[in-house]
Amino acid sequence: MAIFTDVSVKLVSGEIVCKPDPVVLHFESPQGPDSVAWLLEDGTQDLTPEFSWSPECPFATMDDSPTANRIEGTDNKKKEGDYKYTIVLKNAQGKAVAELDPWIQNQRL
After folding, report:
1. Cα 15 to the chain's mean position, in Å?
2. Residue 28 in 3-state DSSP?
3. What share of the chain is helix, strand, coil (3-state, %, to 5)?
4. What is the pTM of this model?
5. Burial 29-67 (b: 16+ CB within 10 A, else e)
6. Fewer Cβ atoms within 10 Å of its own Cβ: the N or the C terminal residue of the chain?
7. What domains, with CATH codes, occur in the chain?
8. Cβ atoms within 10 Å of 104's Cβ, excluding its own
9. How many CB atoms lie within 10 A of CB 11?
10. pLDDT tens digits, the chain, 109 residues: what are they?
């Protein structure tokens, strides 16, 4: 069962703000967290988020079609390391409005 940490995604003065950044996961701890729920908040209501990972995603399952303003990364691959990702918010016409490169620290305990 996934244990989530919530990441707030806001648009403030045209810039994406993710909190916390970085996200720290503990994939072998019984208390977790081992998964992420990105919560789309202030200023993001009419925008579509897109995620890309470099070099890879720490999750086997990435639900990047928002449901109720929530996007989930689950099924942690259990590989230690730092995972950089890019989140782009696009308008209805598909134009990028803002972009940010946060990261995740995936730790054993």
Report:
1. 16
2. coil
3. 0, 60, 40
4. 0.94
5. eeebbbbbbbbbeebbeebbbeeeeeeebbbeebeeebe
6. N
7. 4-107 (2.60.40)
8. 24
9. 19
10. 899 999 999 999 999 999 999 999 999 999 999 999 999 998 898 899 999 999 899 999 999 777 778 999 999 999 999 999 999 999 999 999 999 999 999 999 9
